[in-house]
Amino acid sequence: MAKVHLARGSGKDSISALLEPYLKGAALKATDLVAVKIHAGEQGNTRFVGPGRVAAVVEALRLTPGRVFLTDTTVLYRGRRLCAPDYLLLSSEHGFGPPVTPPFIVADGLRGTDDVEIPLPGNSDPHPARIARVIAESDAMVVISHFKGHLLTGFGGAVKNLGMGCASRAGKLFMHSGIRPVTKASKCTGCGNCAEHCPSGAIALTPLASIDPDACVGCGECIQRCPAGAIGTDWGQEKGEFARRLALYAMAAFSSTRVLVCVNFVTDVAPDCDCLGDTGPEVVEDIGVLASTDPVALDQACLDLVTAADGASGTFSGTGRGVEKFGLLHPGTDPEAQLSEAEAVGLGSRSFDLVELGT
C-alpha cells in the first residue's frame, strides 16, 4: 500500500519535514538534470503554487543548483502560455527564476511541438503519447501540483499535471479530441468572449454563438470564458474516453523519466484551474501539503481530505463536510474517473496509508 505523507502547514519548515522521507530515494548523480514540473499560473491568477513554496521543495530535496530547473508546457488556448517567449515572460512576472528559484524552461519548445513519442502502456492505443522533450530527456523529475477544481475532470492534481501538463500540443489535442462544447441559445448574450478566445476560430456570432464542430479542437476554453454559462459539454461517451486518455498520458509521462516524488498543495483550493485568471472563491480552507511517490494514491488522499472538510465559509452552498465537492461544482464530471483509469493502467493505487506529520 502506498504511503502518503501529510503536513498541515505549508511553510518552509513543514515542507522540509514532509519531504525528509524522500531524500534517500532522491539520491542523484552529480550530472543528473532534474526537472521540477510546475504550473506558473495564467495572467491574473494568484492561486498557483508560488515561487517561495517551489523553492522550499527544491531546497528540501537538496537538488543541485545548475542541474535543476523548473518546467511546464505550452497550452492550446489563447493566453500568455500559448508560446514559449510569452510564457517565459509570464513566469518571470510571477516570480519564478533566479535568484528565488531555479531557471524556468518551457518543456515543449517554441510553439509546443518539440516532443518525443512514448509508447502507451499495454499497447492499448495505436497512438504513442507525445511527451514534451525536455521532460522525457530529463534524468529525474519532481512533480509539484496545485490541488483544485477543473471543469473537465472535476479536479486537477498530480495525475492531471502529469498527463495534460507533460504533453506537447499534439498530445493535448489528442486528449481533447473527443470533447465537444455545445451552446445554450437561451443563455447566450452574444457578447463574443468565446469567439475572441477560441484558438481555432471555430466560433461565429450569428448573432449568437455558433460552434463549428469540424473546426473545434475541444480545448474547452470557450466553456471557461463564457460569463453567462451558455456553453457546456455534450459528454455522452466522451467523458470516459477523456479520463482514459488522460490516465494513459500520465502513465507515459511518469515512465518517460524517473519521478522522485509528487507534491500536492491543498491550499487556495479554487473551483477552477490555474489556467484561468479568476478562479473564484475557495472551496475549502487550506488543508496542507501532501507527498507520495504514487500520484494516484496522492490524488485520492487529497480528494478524500477535501470531501471530509467543511466548505469554506460564505462561498458554496451544499458543499459541507462529507460532500464530494468538485462534482457538485462541475455538474456532469466524475472526479473519480481519472483515478479509476489511472489505477487501471498501472500508474498507482487508490489504496493508501496516510501518515500525518506530528501524529
Sketch the major β-sheet: 8 strands, mixed
Mean pLDDT: 91
Helicity range: 25-40%
Shape: globular
User: Number of helical segments?
Assistant: 12
CATH-assigned homologous superfamily of the largest domain: LarA, N-terminal domain
Structural class: alpha/beta
CATH topology of the largest domain: Rossmann fold
Q: Strands of the largest sheet, in order across it?
A: 4-3-2-7-14-15-1-16
Low-confidence parts: none
Distance between the termini: 19 Å
Instruction: Give the quaternary arrangement of the chains.
Output: single chain
- Percentage of residues in DSSP E strands: 15-25%
Tally of separate domains: 2
Our Rg estimate from Cα atoms comes to: 19 Å
Compile the SSE list and pairings.
Elements: E1 2-7, H1 12-19, E2 34-37, H2 51-60, E3 68-72, H3 84-93, E4 104-106, E5 115-118, E6 129-132, H4 133-136, E7 140-146, E8 148-150, E9 154-156, H5 158-163, H6 169-176, E10 181-183, H7 193-197, E11 203-205, E12 209-211, H8 221-225, E13 231-233, H9 238-256, E14 259-266, E15 288-292, H10 295-308, H11 325-329, H12 337-344, E16 352-356
Helix pairs in contact: 1-2, 6-9, 9-12
What structural keywords apply?
359 residues; alpha/beta; Rossmann fold; Alpha-Beta Plaits; 2 domains; eight-stranded mixed beta sheet; two-stranded antiparallel sheet; 12 helices
Structure description:
- The chain has 359 residues and is of the alpha/beta class.
- The model has no long low-confidence stretch (mean pLDDT 91).
- The protein has helices at residues 12-19, 51-60, 84-93, 133-136, 158-163, 169-176, 193-197, 221-225, 238-256, 295-308, 325-329, 337-344; strands spanning 2-7, 34-37, 68-72, 104-106, 115-118, 129-132, 140-146, 148-150, 154-156, 181-183, 203-205, 209-211, 231-233, 259-266, 288-292, 352-356.
- It is built from 12 helices and 16 strands.
